[in-house]
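task queued by scheduler; priority normal; single chain, no ligands, no partner chains; default sampling; output format set to structure tokens
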Amino acid sequence: MASLKAAGDVIVVRDAAAKKMIEVTSTREGSPMPHLHLHPERHLVSRIGWLRAAVLGANDGIVSTASLIVGVAVAAATQTDILIAGAAGLVAGAISMAAGEYVSVGSQSDTEQAYLARETQEPRDNPAFEHEELAQIYVRRAVDRALARQVAEQLMAKNALAAHAQDELGMSEITTARPIQAALTSAATFAVGAAMPLLKVVIAPPHLLVWIVSCASLASLALLGALGAQAGGAKVLRATARLTSWGPLAMALTAGIGALFGTVV
């Protein structure tokens, strides 16, 4: 809820919900001129790129490694066998995550660069059409046609590529694909996530290993969901439920496979 406070010719508007303070200065002609002061506003959308890769990597590390350990342990393997299998899964998984993220996000980056190259050339070949195309975008956003054309003209005069990239293609600096960042983030968080169930193999009694690894992994997934939601400004319960829903299924399936093959062998 916004609150008003008058101070001479200055009206200060405080918006507690948005954590903003706007100072409106009244001119002698009677037309107010608003200008925004510095305010503690947080925009978490800038975290989307690395946060997605981090949550994906850590989740995959916990689920895949814990499931592998549970399956091997149920097959009546020794602690050394379980550690070797888990460590191999950690290394292979981290490299696989890095490669997969690099290839996937790299393909997205290639597509973005191709579109940007086309948008760089089109204003040179047909500036009138590109100007009208940009103006129509603003018209569809309820901007007056004359004003939309004026805005399009000014934006294209300053930076035609940036204007078309943001308003026509929906691309910005925040959402730009970063393959190396995604690859390194996924690999690192996968390794951290996979290290948790491996540590439990070392400290857990052999007869309780399956239960301790399973319960600790579910707790780690819940913590990851809460941390990811907090970092992204999302709802904690929804994120936690989403991350903890697949882990039990994966561990149950690998436990069944371990029991089946362990019995056969």
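post-processing summary
- The mean pLDDT is 77.
- DSSP finds eight helices and four strands in the chain.
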